[in-house]
Structure formats: structure tokens, C-alpha cells
Known about the structure:
The protein is mainly alpha-helical. It contains 24 helices and 2 strands. It has a single domain, classed as Up-down Bundle (Growth Hormone, Chain: A), CATH 1.20.1250.20. The chain has helices at 3-10, 20-40, 43-50, 55-58, 60-82, 85-101, 103-109, 112-138, 146-154, 157-172, 181-185, 189-221, 231-235, 240-249, 251-272, 274-284, 289-317, 323-343, 346-360, 363-372, 379-388, 392-405, 413-417, 419-434, and strands spanning 13-14, 17-18. A hairpin with a 2-residue loop joins strand 1 and strand 2 (17-18). Helix 16 packs antiparallel against helix 19 (346-360). The longest helix has 33 residues, at 189-221.
Amino acid sequence: MNNDNKKSRLLVTRDGVSYVLPFIVVTCCFALWGFANDITNPMVKAFSKIFRMSVTDGTLVQVAFYGGYFCMALPAAMFIRRHSFKSGIVLGLALYALGVLLFIPAKAIGSFAPFLLAYFILTCGLSFLETTANPYILMMGDAETATRRLTLAQSFNPIGSLAGMFVAMNLIQARLNPLDTVERASLDDAQFEALKQSDLSVLVQPYAALGVVLVVLLVAMLFVRIPAVYQAARDTRAPLLPAVKRLWANRAYRNGVVAQFFYVGAQITCWTFIIQYGTRIFMAEGMTEQAAEVLSQRYNIVAMVLFCLMRFVNIYLMKYFKPGRLLAFFAAVALVLLCGVILLGGRTGMCCLVAVSACMSLMFPTIYGIALGGVREDTEVGSAGLIMAILGGSLLPAVQAVIIDSDVQVLPSVNLSFVVPALCFVVVMLYGSRYSRYKV
């Protein structure tokens, strides 16, 4: 088969029906949840400072954020089975918009809990979007190109992530009051309350603007025609429980859910705590806390640029290497780099941490593609299980934060905390090795 035919198959034409326009529309959703993910990661540090909390308390942001993914994934799959992919996208955008707009009353209340509720509702929407968009992309064309097609769509996720990082760095972190954590602790109650309200106003403005954008997109989506795939099969599909039993009996799927849990945990810990890691390094060089945080976020942006570029490189590599082998190889490289983060420290360790993102770029779609290979009859339910595995991004950062807040003598606690993602990559490496012969 010539290259032109391969290209057309990757760009999704099935049974004489072109899915190019729906592919473009749905791919926009990947950028939207990338934005949400990476404007949120620096907020662990920001909320810890604004509310004078420990790092461990600050990670409740991640618990609420990724907890929404876990709680809503299965209901989203059931909703899609009953209705349609378009309905799932529309409801996802509606919940996403509601969550970000709830930041406005949360700021007026002035406590941490309403922000956690807003994050939870926001990610219930993201759970709908991911549960809908990922399997829809896989089903838009031939099975042989499914993982490459999903990797292509996922390549737009870090573009949204870069936008989220840019907004976090320039419109939030750089505009927060420069008083550091120690100086804030010395303020009396009235001074602290005034400072907190000022900082919350800075934090809320980008979220309010995002809410307006999402409402506009939601209205536009109502007028976009999203073709159904396998609609006839969906109407006659077996009930939910038999589907769950079939998936549980599939080892590649079952192990894929475990691998995805640990991969997402590794990704979020690396991207969340790069701020803490860099802040410690740069403050040791004489910078103020705010300047160190902003510089750390710039390193985080470099990491995301590498992540984005490697997505396209991996699309090319998958033409010649099986996805499982690439997954095992990059997980092993990430493990070595994290040893450098833990043991070397300084700017060298920071560069190793940035380089880990290049290794992570193919992991989510590759695990997703391997796990869902051969389960097309139960794709929506299988997708829900893999999205529920995003819970790893909620639980594992809290484990790492406990290590950061601890008093460790042998190594700086921030350095030692990266043992958590290192162990996660061991699990991912084993999964890739076990299913290195899979073609999808």
C-alpha cells in the first residue's frame, strides 16, 4: 500500500464517510483539557501560599481535580452508550464551564473548600470529554492506525497545556503579591485577609475568562454535526455488567488500567512538584521565592515543549517500532533521569526533570491503545476504566507531598520525593515489556 493511502487511513475515512471535520472538532477538546490540567498544577503552590497551608494541604487541589475524573468516568460511559458521542461532548463542555465560573462565588466566599468544589465539577466535565473523545478518535478509522491516530490527537493536548502554563506563569504567579511564605505567616488577621482577597482576585480572572470561552464553544458545538460510529452495535449491546466482566477477563486491559494509574500519577507528580524542586534550587542561589517560582515555571514550559515535540516524533517512530517496545524504552529512560533528579540535584537535576517530559509524551495514548485493543464491543466502558485510572493523579501527588513536608536527613526532602514517580515508571516499563508485541 502506498504512502498516500496510509495517510488517508490515518486521517480517518471509514465506510465512505469522512471523519476529518469531526476529528478536528474533537481534537480541540484535547487542547481544552490540557489547558485545565496545566493551569492547575502550579495552583498547588499558589493556594498553599494564599491560604498559608502546607504543601500536603495544597495537594487537595489535585485530589479534587483528579477525583472528578474518577467519579464521573463510568457515569459518562453509561451516558454515551445511552445517547451519543456528541451529547457526551456537549455535557462535558457544560460541566467544564460551570466549574470554572464557580471560581467567582468561591472568591467571594474567601475559603479554600469552594475552590475544591469548583475543581471537582470542572473535572467532572473533563471526565466526560476524555471518556468521549479518546474512544471516538480510536474508532474513527482502521484499527492498525488507531494508536497513531490517538497519538496525533493527543499531540494537541500539550498545546493547550502550554497555554495553561503561560497563563499560570504570566497572569497568576507573576501577579501574586511577592511576599513569601514566611513573611505571610507574620501578618495579622486583617492584613492577611486583605492580601488573600487581592491574590484571589488575580487567580480568578483567567478562570472567569475561560468560562466565557467555554460557553461560546458550547453554543458552537450544538451546531456542529458529529457523525455516529457503530450506532447500530450500540443499540443492541449487552448490559453494563457483562461488559465489565469481559473487560476484567482481558489481561491486557486490566493491566493497562493499573499502568495508566501509575503513569498519570508519575506525570502529575513530575509537573506539579517541578515548582517546589526548582524553587528550592533557585532560592539557594539567592533568588526571592517569587522569582524562583517564575523561573521554575519557565523550566516547566520547556518540559511541555519537549513533551509536545516528542508526540510528533513518536507518531513517526510508531511506523517502525511497536508501541509497547517504545513504551518500555522511554519508561526505562525516565527512570534513569529521575535517579539524576534525586541524586544530583541543582540545575543538573532540574534538567533531568525537564527531560522526563520527553519520555512521557507517548505513554498515555500508548497504554490506552494497547489496553483497548480488541475490546471494541465494550469501548465506552473500557474507556471509562482507563479514565478512572487518572485517580493516580489525585493520590500519588499527596504521597509525594508528605515526603516533601517530612524532615529527611540523608537527602533534601524534595529530591527524595521523586522516588514516587520513579516507582511509577517501573510499573509502566513492565507493562510495555509484557505487551511489546502488540501492534495497536
